[in-house]
Predict the structure.
Amino acid sequence: MHVTIRLFARLRDITGSGELTREAPGGATVGAVWSSLVAEYPELSPYEKSISCAVNADYSRFSATVADGDEIAFLPPVSGG
Amino acid sequence: MHVTIRLFARLRDITGSGELTREAPGGATVGAVWSSLVAEYPELSPYEKSISCAVNADYSRFSATVADGDEIAFLPPVSGG
Amino acid sequence: MIALTAITAEPLDAAALVRALDITGIGALTTFVGLVRDHNLGRRVMRLEYEAYEPLALRGLELIVQEAAEQWPDVRLAIHHRIGRMGIGEASVAIAAASPHRADAFAASRYAIERIKQIVPIWKHEYFEGGDVWIEGATADPDNVEAREKAMKIACT
Amino acid sequence: MIALTAITAEPLDAAALVRALDITGIGALTTFVGLVRDHNLGRRVMRLEYEAYEPLALRGLELIVQEAAEQWPDVRLAIHHRIGRMGIGEASVAIAAASPHRADAFAASRYAIERIKQIVPIWKHEYFEGGDVWIEGATADPDNVEAREKAMKIACT
């Protein structure tokens, strides 16, 4: 299945793109999507402990299962205000 | 000597005037001016414990000595804001 | 440029108060506006009339600005209090605070309104359905250390 | 009528935010505006660029309004956050709170800014003299109870 990955701020700088489309095996979790992304872009690994995630523009968990066509967003620590 | 007495809010309602001119003996204190006023308007006496005073538009004390021509203000508990 | 402190019979404008502040180096701006409420202590309020001992009330506002500057040296504060007749929803007091950091702006603004209610010689005459009454709150002694500490505690903790 | 919550590329207007609030029965109105500062951590800042995950950032602001409504049922809150490029002194965030009583208006306003900094997916790209850096603050987990309690503590005590 295909998932859209959204990346922001420094994560976007690292991958060079705010939106990527990637293959993921059926039943994959958000965490598995992240791990494949880290394998592709090792510079992302320091964010392992600090990122949050969202699925289809709603807050989610790394343990959540993703479905075909989902938009998975990885959110580095925020700095609004 | 003469002093001008300024009264506000309920105190003004009691005396019927926001500004009175009264005689005071030389060396009189603000407290003495207040006491004569209470003698004149007994309805003021409940304010004995709660009023503050000012002399010539600056915060003062009941123990302060007044001078000829001074403006003595008696301030009931405030309620601005 | 409007004055940083004022006792005025004109309607208040919080945005104008903000514009009166120098915002060089500022990261946080707060405003507080007190409005005439339609109810008080179960009474239906029709309008208020505020009376002030004007020169001393202005001095009181200046004293509050000075006290705040001692506590929060980087905060810039402006305070206007309206007097005269006001209808429901009209602003009786407006405070603007500018500060490099938000904690100080909130604290100074809160301190200012608490102190206004403690020491500034302004009195509220409430006209409610069925009568009217002078509201009597705090005793106006600026040297009362306990009162000042109370205001500081509300503002800072 | 402007929206109570917004993520927008347009300049913010705290006075317009206030006008968006229903002030029936209100006695206190507060605003908080965050401005771009000229210095940060000893660096001379030239400008900022804010980026957001817009739909989730808007949801975050709505969540904060809802959290505030649970804690302070009488408070009405409006929050706008700007994104894109901003110069020194421009407003990045504006919050307006209306409440029957001042303590709640101050608390809800303070709570809102603390929560924005905790959970709303917005990022600040700082362009300073000699370089640029993405500012990374808090981890955006709205379910983190400790974070929420921390914001509540700052707001309420």
